[in-house]
Amino acid sequence: MVLDFKSEEIKKRSVTISGHRTSFSLEEGFWQEIKLLAKSEGLSLNQFVEKVDEARTSNLSSALRILVLNHLKERLKNSEEDTLSVAPPAVTPQVP
User: What pTM does this model have?
Assistant: First the structure.
């Protein structure tokens, strides 16, 4: 386990969604993952956070953290499934 205390620091982030400024508090580690998710979907940070804001049922900070957690859990699950589905290499008997 790697403890990166720098990623624990909570910072206030500001974005514009639905034409108004809003802010939320998020740790650096979650913020970096949010930026990667937005980029992977071809969205700006504002657009990505706006999508989350429209779908959320809790506060925005919590919704973003849960989104990152679920995404990373899904990636881990897929990674484990890929590892399990790879057949071991065929063993060719060596003839002396």
Answer: 0.77
Sign of the four-CA dihedral 37, 53, 62, 21: positive
- Tell me the C-alpha distance between 47 and 15, whole Å: 9
Across the strands, what pairs with 69?
A: none
pLDDT digits (tens, 9 = 90+) for 22-73: 999 999 999 999 999 999 999 999 999 999 999 999 899 999 999 999 999 9
Instruction: Give DSSP secondary structure letters for the chain.
Output: ----GGGG-EEEEEEEETTEEEEEEEEHHHHHHHHHHHHHTT--HHHHHHHHHHH-SS-HHHHHHHHHHHHHHHHHHHHHHHHHHSPPPPPPPPP-
Look up residue 65 and give its amino acid. Answer: R
